[in-house]
Amino acid sequence: MEAAVEVRRTAWLAASGHASLDAVIDGLSDVFPYDEILLSRWNPDTQEHVNVISSTAASTADFIQFEQHRDPLVARMRRTRQSLWLSKLTAEQRRVSTTVQKVITPLGFAEGTTQCLYSTEGHYVGVLNIGTRSPASTLGPARHALTLLFDVLASTLTTHTPELCTPTGRTRGWEATIADDTNFCTVSAYESTSCADTAAAFPLAQITRDAVRTRRLPTTLIVPFQAQCIEVHLRRSPVGIHASCQVVDFDGPLSLRELQVLAELARGHTNQVIAQILTISPRTVATHIEHTLTKLGVPNRAAAAAYGARLGLDLAPPPVVAPIPNPVNPSNRIAELSH
Length: 339
Hints:
This protein folds into two domains: 2-157, GAF domain (Beta-Lactamase); 166-315, Winged helix-like DNA-binding domain superfamily/Winged helix DNA-binding domain (Arc Repressor Mutant, subunit A), CATH 1.10.10.10. The chain has helices at residues 2-15, 21-31, 58-66, 72-80, 91-96, 98-107, 140-147, 150-157, 196-201, 204-214, 256-266, 271-278, 282-296, 301-311, and strands at 36-43, 48-54, 111-118, 124-132, 166-167, 173-178, 185-190, 219-225, 228-237, 240-249. By secondary structure, the protein is an alpha+beta fold. The strands form two sheets. Strands 5, 6, 7, 8, 9 and 10 form a six-stranded antiparallel sheet that branches. The protein has a four-stranded antiparallel sheet with strand order 2-1-4-3, with helices on both faces. The radius of gyration is 22 Å and the shape is globular. Pfam families: GerE. One of its GO terms (biological process) is regulation of DNA-templated transcription. This is Putative transcriptional regulator.
């Protein structure tokens, strides 16, 4: 029970942006000794899940993300808000459940649950899938402790964080595939020819390799590049890593310069080093950091750096410093601070 209390504390910190989801999931292993775990957020726009944390194989993660919501048993659990443990499933429930057929049986789980998660307003926000090969008879206290955490796990999926960028409203994106363990990147489709030059210059293969080393897939990154910003969604495919790239606009709380400073913070650089990279004074760097902390609502530079790393800013290529244009709409964008 002590471990469950600690996980609750960490989860509330994560919900406010002061701790990482990885810390929450690591703590869960002390509450329920799982072999595999996935925490997935529901996307009402696409009517699919987005895997936030995954410790399982890509094929299993893809099933959870794209297919599990169509499982008849899971759909019923979502409607009734019923909690079901694997050891309590009837033969008929096992027969109709595609999760049992495609995940539980092949992986040899003895106990676990697919737990639908809801916001405090009652909205479905995601699902926790957790499984273990340990005998169910040894897990009674662990099951009870885990049920105490469903509400705070839901809170980590409903956290509101400031949007740094928004879609441009124009078709400025492309699809690409990066072959495993190579620098080879194949662009498969452009939404328009206007993004062809950006796609050619964007170091997607390097960013993808770095992301695979430091993150679980699928993942979405925000990458400042050439005075614009690229949103990159990465997922595994049978032939490598599939990347969906989209140019996005700066309509969030941060200016482009502040976003560049945040990227260098996420890389762990000091103010002096950031000043050298961006060719501005250390005092200006400090001012940008102060503004960033206020706009993001985080308490210190470490929290800001962690926030930037979660977005993927640490993977951005070193900036080519150039004058930053004034925003088109001053009411929505922050004017460039003078050097």
